[in-house]
Amino acid sequence: MSVAEIPPATIRVLLVDDHTLFRKGLAELLEQRGTITVAGIAASGDEALRVLADVKPDVVITDLNMPPNGGLSLLRQLRHDGWTGPVLILTVSDAEEDLSAAMQAGAKGYLLKDMEPEDVVDAVQRAVRGETVVAPAMTLKLVNLLQGGSSPASVKADALKLLTAREREILEHLAQGLSNKAIARVLDISHDTVKLHVRHILSKLNLTSRVEAAVFAVEQKAAGQGRRISP
C-alpha cells in the first residue's frame, strides 16, 4: 500500500518481531479495525532502524527478546537517535524486572502476547493519544514501581468525592489490574459502559491513564489503612 492510499487518520505502525508467523498474525489483527496500518515490518532491531525513516511510523511495537540485541536495545537506540514517538514492548515476559527495564528505557507501554486482541488494538490507540499503557496483568507491578517515586495521586485525595459509587467501584477494579472486559463481566455491564466510566474517572481525577488511576486508588487504600475505595 502506498502512502497516498493510507487514510489521513490511520495510525501507522512499525512492527518488529523475529517470528514470521506472529508478525503476520499481528499485522492482520491490527489492520482489521481500519484505523491502523502496518506501514513496516522488521525481523530485528537493526532492520527496524534501517526502515524507520522510510515508513515514518506513529508507533513502534517491538518484541523484547530478539536476536541479536533485543527490543530494549532498539528502544534505547531510537531514543538516542531522537525518535520521540511511542514505543510499545509486546512480549511473553511478565517479569517485573523486564517491565522496569522497559519503562526506564523510555517505553510508552508494556503489553503481553496473551492479551485479548481488542485490548492490544485499544492500547495502540491510547498510546498514540499520549497514554502509558500496560497489560492488565502488569498493572499492579507497574504501580509497585511507580510508588517508589512521585505520584500525582497524593494531591488529589479530595477528588475521590467527585466519583459516583459505580465509578469508585470501577476504580477499585482498575487498581486490581482488571481489564475493561473483565470489569464488565464482574459488574454485569457492557464493555462500552465500562469504557465510558473509565473516561469519566480520568477526567474527574485529572489523570491521563489507567495506570495513574490505579496508583491513585492504591495510595488512597493505603492512606485509609486498607479501607475499600468503593462505598
Q: Characteristics of this structure?
A:
Rossmann fold; 10 helices; about 230 residues; six-stranded parallel beta sheet; about 10% strand; alpha/beta; globular
Description:
The protein is α/β, with parallel strands linked by helices and about 230 residues long. It folds into two domains: about 5-135, Response regulator (Rossmann fold, 3-Layer(aba) Sandwich), CATH 3.40.50; about 145-225, Response regulator (Rossmann fold, 3-Layer(aba) Sandwich). The chain is about 50% helix and about 10% strand. The chain has helices spanning about 20-30, 45-55, 70-80, 95-105, 115-130, 140-145, 165-175, 180-185, 190-205, 210-225; strands spanning about 10-15, 35-40, 60, 85-90, 110, 135. Strand 5, helix 5 and strand 6 (about 135) form a beta-alpha-beta unit. Helix 7 (about 165-175) packs across helix 9 (about 190-205). The longest helix has 15 residues, at about 190-205. The chain is globular and about 50 Å long. About 40% of the residues are buried. Residues about 1-10 and about 150-155 have low confidence and may be disordered.
